[in-house]
Amino acid sequence: MTAKIEIVGPQRINGTVHISGAKNAALPLLAASLLSDDSLTLKNVSPLVDVKTMLNLLEELGAVPHITSDSLDFQTISLKTDSIDNFTAPYEIVKKMRASILILGPLLSRFGMCMVSLPGGCSIGVRPIDLHLKGMQALGANVDLRDGYVHASAPHGLKGAEIDFPIVTVTGTENVMMAAVLASGTTVLKNAAREPEIVDLANCLNKMGADISGHGTSTIVINGVNSLHHTEHSVIPDRIEAGTYAIAAGITNGCVNLIGGDFRSLLPSFVEKMEQVGLIFTDIDNGLRVESSGHIAPVDIQTESYPGFPTDLQAQTMALLCLADGESNIQENIWENRFMHVAELSRMGANIEIHNAHAKIIGVNGLKGAPVMATDLRASSSLVLSALAANGKTVIDRVYHLDRGYSCVKEKLAGCGVVIDRIQ
Ligand code: EPU
Fold first, then answer.
1. What is the average pLDDT score of the chain?
2. Are 119 and 127 in contact (CB under 8 A)?
3. What is the pLDDT of residues 293-352, one digit of tens each?
4. Please, are residues 241 and 25 in contact by the beta-carbon 8 Å criterion?
């Protein structure tokens, strides 16, 4: 039997949530430890299942992590990578987490070789890695697909190049940026992703001795260096976790203080859209207060790369708009199959029509608790949010998806007067 969450609604969130370190910043930062034979110390790492999976992968390669728990939700991880003796990301790990591909750039750059299993299918879309591979080839690597694995080699090292990404890719930008750090000469990445997680990675790499500029813009310039050294780096807060708790305030007619960062600049389009919906944002010390105005106005949204509206908040936003006073529209532009939560929200009484990548959401007066199934990470959090607002009992199955990207959900909600139960 898989773990489930049981929620009896309606409930109201009222309190303070300390936002954890960002999953999507921690994963590339952990992979970046492979670039140096000196250790890397990362602070503010959240104990998420995806973080554990990345640590397992690094251990498989020969890295030695030392983990100290500063609190239930904040860890410091020091990684020693001077005895890497395996260069393969096996299928058993990659199938659990596609971000395993992030070891490709660092291993190729430092050791001139790497093998990564092809990831296979995914619930939110095809998720190809062709742009990662083309980036490595542009830097001079030989890339071969054999027996379900990417075999990449650069026996004479990588060479700087100009790479113009045809579409914006987050982990693609991170992977090629890490590969270019130890390449000879200069690499210029055009149409690079501008996400805060890219900036965090570049900042950490620069502290390790890399020479990167332009991060946070769509042109990143990397001058190759011979080696990197030890540094200590604190992971930025998780803007998607923050956005999810902000929606909890909106959907439960409540109020939450999000602590741990400048969430206005981490989530510019999200805050703008949520203000249109009726949420009230107030700057507070080291964070943002989010309050419901008691009214949910309909809004039109399209997902885009940063600084646009993040796809990773699309499902949660849809849950909120199910209760809006009118018709909203969501265009999902990043992932072709990221509407799996729609069927589950409909089981709770939502009125949503889908045409390809477009969803029309007609607001209803209330949702009703029902047994539902989580299909991916962000879909699971949208179901938790709907369940908090719904009348009656909701049981969410397959919540292992939630554990990949949200830590201490039960504890954080309990701190805000909300009760959810986990059933094993
Ligand atoms: N794409 C290609 N070829 C590639 C790479 C990407 O065609 O080689 C396409 C994808 O199919 C997609 C688009 O480019 O249509 C953007 O994908 P991107 O590469 O940016 O996604 P990603 O790097 O695999 C990261 C996050 C995702 C988040 C997306 C978009 C991490 C570890 N993952 O994925 O996070 O949705 O960027 O912002 O950073 C999540 O946390 O729930 C999650 C899925």
1. 96
2. yes
3. 999 999 999 999 999 999 999 999 999 999 999 999 999 999 988 999 999 999 999 999
4. no
CA distances from 408 to 27, 74, 129, 412 (A): 19, 11, 32, 6
Side chain identity at residue 159, one-letter code: K
> Annotated active-site positions, please?
122
Work out which ligand 1 atom sits closest to the CA atom of 131.
Answer: 8
Give 91 Cα–ligand 1 centroid separation in angstroms. Answer: 19
List the strands of the sheet with 75-80, edge to edge.
64-69, 75-80, 40-45, 231-234
Judge if the beta carbon of residue 375 lies within 6 A of ligand 1: no
Torsion-angle region of 112 (φ positive above 0: left; ψ -120 to 50: alpha; else: beta): left
**Which pair of tokens denotes residue 170?**
């987050």
| C-beta of 311 in contact with ligand 1 (< 6 A) | yes
Å from CA of 84 to ligand 1 middle: 28
CB neighbour burial string for 98-130, b if at least 16 within 10 angstroms, e if fewer: bbbbbbbbbbbbbebbbbbbebeeeebeebebe
For the chain, domains (ranges, CATH) are 4-20+237-423 (3.65.10.10), 23-234 (3.65.10.10)
143, 269, 334, best to mutate for ligand 1 pocket (most atoms within 8 Å of CB): 334
Whether 27 lines ligand 1, by a CB cut-off of 6 Å, is yes
Distance CA 406, CA 350 (A): 25
DSSP string, 34-48: GG-SS-EEEEEE---
The encoded tokens of residue 166 equal 């045809």
Distance in angstroms (rounded) separating the CA atoms of residues 286 and 131: 37
* CA nearest to 233, candidates 17, 18, 36, 16: 36
Segment 375-421, tens digit of pLDDT: 999 999 999 999 999 999 999 999 999 999 999 999 999 999 999 99
pLDDT at 123 over 90: no
Under 8 Å between Cβ of 46 and 405: no
